[in-house]
Amino acid sequence: MRANREARRGPSLLLPLVLALLLTLTASTARGAGAPPPREPPVADAPPTPALARTWPVGSRPPVLRAWEPPPTPYAGGHRGVDLAAVSGAPVRAVAAGRVHFAGRVAGRGVVSVELSGTGTPPLRTTYEPVTAAVEKGTEVAAGEVVGTLEPGHGHCPTTCVHWGLLRGETYLDPLTLLPPWLLRTGPSRLLPVLTAPPPA
């Protein structure tokens, strides 16, 4: 008789516990459904490319045979640099101060790469090819210092050219953004009148 009373009381005690648990789960699910999803931590924007170049890699204002064409995806086609017309054997210069990151051959082409000083982490890195290196890895170079000589064409351009690239980490950037406006100007220089000069006698 007592066992029957215990059996009847057991489920009656268990039922409120089950209901309380279900209500708690339902309330928390409802709160979660209405709450906005957790926000991703903000990703810092890449710093802008500073116009710190002091010279062109070749010549003074070489013709740009092909401009930078960023690929739509990392592995898609595009043009990850600019092609500058120059004659074979022309000196190739570091556009800004830095340290030689690489000097050697890649797929049969001579390549020189320079990490630019004071350009953040990861630093900006310029590349020049096809170039016979005149420097070694680890060499400190100044802006305008010769890092190599242009090799004969490898079929990359219709004429002899240097392919000039710019990267930050693994991201390719437009190397022309390194050039300040005064280096990008085209056309002949113009002499301005000196207004303070005395008139001719």
Describe this structure in words.
With 201 residues, this protein is an alpha+beta fold. It has a domain at 64-182: Glucose Permease (Domain IIA), CATH 2.70.70.10. The protein contains 2 helices and 11 strands, in the order αβββββββββββα. The strands form 2 sheets. Strands 1, 2, 4, 5, 6, 8, 10 and 11 form an 8-stranded antiparallel beta sheet that branches. It has a 3-stranded antiparallel beta sheet with strand order 3-9-7, with no helix packed on it. The longest helix is centred in the first third of the chain and has 33 residues, at 2-34. It is globular. Mean pLDDT is 76; it is low at 23-45 and 188-201.
Averaged pLDDT: 76
Give, in order, the helices and strands.
HEEEEEEEEEEEH
Main sheet attributes: strand count, strand direction, barrel closure: 8 strands, antiparallel
Q: Which structural class is indicated by helix and strand composition?
A: alpha+beta
**Straight-line distance between termini:** 139 Å
Number of DSSP helical runs: 2
User: And the CATH topology of the domain at 64-182?
Assistant: Glucose Permease (Domain IIA)
Shape: globular
Q: Compute the CA-based radius of gyration.
A: 33 Å
DSSP strand count: 11
CATH class of the domain at 64-182: Mainly Beta
Beta content comes to 25-35%
CATH architecture of the domain at 64-182: Distorted Sandwich
Proportion in helices: 10-25%
Going by CATH, what is the homologous superfamily of the domain at 64-182? Glucose Permease (Domain IIA)
Stretches where pLDDT falls below 50 for ≥5 residues?
Answer: 23-45, 188-201
